[in-house]
TrEMBL record:
This is SpoU rRNA Methylase family protein. The lineage of its organism: Bacteria, Pseudomonadati, Bacteroidota, Cytophagia, Cytophagales. One of its GO terms (molecular function) is RNA binding. PANTHER family: 23S RRNA (GUANOSINE-2'-O-)-METHYLTRANSFERASE RLMB. Keywords: Methyltransferase, Transferase. The keyword Phosphoprotein does not apply. InterPro entries: Alpha/beta_knot_MTases (IPR029028), rRNA_MeTrfase_TrmH (IPR004441), SpoU_MeTrfase (IPR001537), tRNA_m1G_MTases_N (IPR029026). One of its GO terms (biological process) is methylation. It comes from Pontibacter ummariensis. One of its GO terms (cellular component) is cytosol. Pfam families: SpoU_methylase.
Length: 174
């Protein structure tokens, strides 16, 4: 690990993060929760919100996939996803539900606004993002898929949308 020149948890916490938070809407799998933490750490997301039934640290199944990222990434449990979405909007976040829905924006067509903070809402493994949350969101982002399956695992979807956001944000700064 020394050769990788990784920051300590304390140094990581003090670094400037990308203008992005992740909102998990009733995610059942603790392994998926841990994977989202690890992705949030890898790409320096500001925070992870764990909503509704989403499991929260400390839990061995979360830690199994988070590999310590629950210590480096800020997180908060919020009982109601819709209330959080409304609060984030008041705080100036643009809320994007990641879902397949009418009038969604394909991820490759999404262009983040420079300086704008975003919240990406990712939903339950079976039911997706709650409809009232989708309806209240500022936009719906859809990951294009070309195979026979109609969805991605939430941890994979998180990695795809966060990397897309980060790469577009970095390109704007160049």
């Amino acid at each position: 690990m020394d050769e990788l020149n990784r920051d300590s948890v304390e140094a990581f916490k003090n670094k400037k993060k990308i203008p992005l938070v992740l909102v998990l809407d009733n995610v059942r799998s603790l392994n998926n929760v841990g994977s989202v933490f690890r992705t949030a750490d890898a790409f320096m997301a500001e925070k992870v919100y764990l909503c509704g039934i989403t499991g929260k640290p400390p839990h061995r199944d979360i830690e199994k996939t988070a590999l310590g990222a629950t210590e480096s990434v800020d997180w908060e449990h919020v009982p109601d996803t819709l209330e959080l979405v409304k609060r984030l909007q008041v705080d100036g976040f643009k809320v994007c539900a990641v879902e397949q829905a009418e009038r969604s924006t394909m991820l490759h067509d999404f262009q983040p606004e420079p300086g704008q903070h975003y919240a990406f809402v990712l939903g339950n493994e079976v039911f997706g993002v709650e409809q009232d949350v989708v309806s209240t969101s500022d936009m719906v982002l859809e990951i294009p898929q070309f195979g026979t399956k109609h969805s991605l695992n939430i941890s994979v979807a998180t990695g795809v949308v966060v990397w897309d956001f980060l790469s577009k944000t970095l390109a704007q700064e160049a």
